[in-house]
């Protein structure tokens, strides 16, 4: 059996700081956010933060947050 987690399907919202021009990518349910000088940079950093959150949850034997768990796909091996 294999497990696939589609982190790119986890929703992300964006805001831009009018003063600095920086973008913030965030998901309030997961309490994850990242900042970048461009929208793409902020999203890339957000996805990296999701990977780190997932690693933390696995290494501490904690259940996946529902916002990530619903993007898990189990497949039977051949």
Describe the structure.
The protein is of the alpha+beta class and 78 residues long. It has one domain (2-75): Double Stranded RNA Binding Domain (2-Layer Sandwich), CATH 3.30.160.250. It is 32% helix and 28% strand. It has 2 helices and 5 strands. The chain has a 3-stranded antiparallel sheet, with helices on one face. Strands 1-5 form a two-stranded antiparallel sheet. Strand 3 and strand 4 form a beta hairpin. The N and C termini lie close together (8 Å). The model has no long low-confidence stretch (mean pLDDT 93).
What is this entry, summarized?
By secondary structure, this protein is of the alpha+beta class. The chain is built from two helices and five strands, in the order E-E-E-E-H-H-E.
CATH topology: Double Stranded RNA Binding Domain
Distance between the termini: 8 Å
Question: Mind summarizing the main beta sheet?
Answer: 3 strands, antiparallel
User: Spans with pLDDT under 50 lasting ≥5 residues?
Assistant: none
- Number-wise, the strands total 5
């Amino acid at each position: 059996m294999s497990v696939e987690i589609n982190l790119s399907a986890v929703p992300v919202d964006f805001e831009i700081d009018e003063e600095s021009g920086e973008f913030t990518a965030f998901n309030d349910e997961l309490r994850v956010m990242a900042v970048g000088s461009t929208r793409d940079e902020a999203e890339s950093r957000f996805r990296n933060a999701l990977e780190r959150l997932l690693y933390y949850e696995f290494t501490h034997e904690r259940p996946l947050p529902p916002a990530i768990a619903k993007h898990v796909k189990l497949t039977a091996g051949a």
